[in-house]
């Protein structure tokens, strides 16, 4: 990224704050790659959930993802409103981070065959991960001026892909060569990767807490903070109903990001169900990470120059192609090509969605409005992962799972078309 495009102190924003904010994506993407998309789906099917077949195992994993999403969906708007009122976004972020780190670390000690405990710890870690993102996203409006949100958001996702990819690469090397790190088996190295990820997440989150400032609390003397949170959610719902671009975008996002998240969460389990070797799946995920690094940053510039809607539509069209091809793949090289395609658009869709939404909402209520943003984004995951698993069981072939996502992508794209593009 061109340093000249980073906001300067003269614009009222610090470069150090921008980079510290973006670097949190480097920190938490270790969880997204090593746990969420990488080792957990593999170990869940091959190490913990060994008492059933691939389709049923995928269904269990899908329900686990959905439970975590429901928890965030029900709590995010209230906690976001509370954080806005009390000026405590960073404190809430820290609490969520702590839950995620502890859940991730505990995964490393769960015995083989204990799929229920593994799923519970995964749910706790996922709730922490997603909860922290509510407050992380909301801080975007305070670290950079509005005309740089697309670029700064892209920078965050770009650093996330790079950091997550590097950590995942290190964990993969350890899993393939456990003797290099003093471990006996690849499985032992894979479970140890959860502990390493927890440490990574904690250490690299520190700059955000040191150098990112948040606006002072604006709401005072309105009863208890929690009561205020509930009341403000009601007010926000009424406010959103009057802001057509906001609620139209939220519904569009609700649908299409579900498909994007489901690909992230279920791709490795899907590939394993098709009989691809672990090595093929590992290589594919590494491709996604390292292609995603420059692609996410490039999408930030695309959003600034051509508009975020066009960039999002480009990503959705590529995802539709991915779903169609993914239902018919037979060879590992096809999985690699699809991984390149995912890497090119995944971070871009996420980054442009976040920055586009930031431009539609009142900055003074960012935490609260991003609570709804995460509510719909994560509540949608209540549908996607189970639907992904159910299509495989309903039609007797896991390949049909990929086709289920096209419904969500098309529906989201149609609603997005009606959103006023203010960029």
Automatic annotation (TrEMBL):
Location in the cell: Endomembrane system
Record keywords: Membrane, Transmembrane, Transmembrane helix, Transport
Domain spans labelled Major facilitator superfamily (MFS) profile: 1-423
SUPFAM superfamilies found in the cross-reference section: MFS general substrate transporter
Protein topology in the membrane: Multi-pass membrane protein
InterPro entries (UniProt xref): Atg22-like, ATG22/LtaA_families, MFS_dom, MFS_trans_sf
Protein's recorded name: MFS transporter
TM stretches of this protein: 21-43, 63-83, 92-110, 116-139, 151-177, 189-212, 246-269, 281-302, 311-329, 335-357, 369-388, 400-417
Family annotation (Pfam families): ATG22
């Amino acid at each position: 990224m061109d340093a000249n495009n980073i906001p300067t102190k003269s614009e009222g924003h610090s470069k150090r704050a921008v980079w510290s904010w973006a670097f949190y994506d480097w920190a938490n993407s270790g969880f997204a790659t090593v746990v969420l998309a990488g080792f957990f789906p593999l170990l869940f099917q091959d190490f913990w959930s060994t008492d059933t077949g691939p389709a049923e195992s995928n269904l269990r994993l899908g329900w686990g993802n959905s439970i975590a999403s429901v928890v965030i969906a029900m709590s995010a708007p209230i906690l976001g409103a509370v954080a806005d009122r009390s000026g405590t976004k960073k404190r809430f972020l820290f609490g969520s981070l702590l839950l995620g780190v502890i859940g991730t670390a505990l995964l490393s000690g769960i015995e083989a065959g204990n799929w229920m405990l593994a799923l519970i710890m995964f749910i706790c870690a996922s709730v922490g991960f997603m909860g922290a993102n509510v407050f992380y996203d909301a801080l975007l409006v305070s670290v950079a001026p509005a005309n740089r949100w697309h670029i700064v958001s892209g920078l965050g996702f770009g650093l996330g892909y790079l950091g997550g990819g590097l950590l995942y690469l290190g964990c993969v090397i350890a899993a393939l060569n456990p003797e290099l790190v003093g471990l006996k088996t690849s499985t032992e190295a894979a479970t140890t990767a959860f502990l390493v990820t927890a440490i990574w997440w904690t250490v690299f989150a520190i700059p955000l807490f040191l150098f990112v400032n948040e606006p002072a609390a604006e709401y005072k003397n309105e009863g208890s903070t929690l009561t205020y949170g509930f009341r403000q959610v009601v007010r926000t719902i009424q406010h959103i109903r009057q802001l057509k671009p906001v609620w139209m975008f939220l519904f569009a996002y609700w649908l299409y990001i579900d498909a994007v998240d489901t690909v992230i969460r279920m791709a490795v389990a899907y590939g394993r169900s098709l009989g691809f070797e672990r090595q093929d799946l590992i290589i594919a995920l590494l491709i996604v990470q390292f292609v995603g690094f420059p692609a996410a940053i490039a999408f930030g510039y695309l959003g600034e120059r051509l508009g975020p809607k066009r960039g999002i539509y480009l990503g959705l069209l590529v995802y539709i192609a991915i779903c169609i091809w993914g239902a018919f793949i037979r060879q590992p090289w096809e999985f690699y090509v699809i991984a390149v395609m995912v890497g090119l658009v995944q971070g871009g869709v996420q980054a442009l969605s976040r920055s586009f939404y930031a431009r539609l909402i009142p900055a003074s209520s960012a935490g609260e409005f991003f609570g709804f943003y995460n509510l719909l984004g994560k509540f949608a995951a209540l549908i996607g992962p189970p639907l992904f698993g159910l299509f495989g069981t309903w039609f007797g072939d896991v390949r049909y799972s990929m086709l289920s996502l096209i419904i969500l992508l098309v529906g989201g794209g149609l609603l997005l078309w009606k959103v006023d593009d203010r960029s």
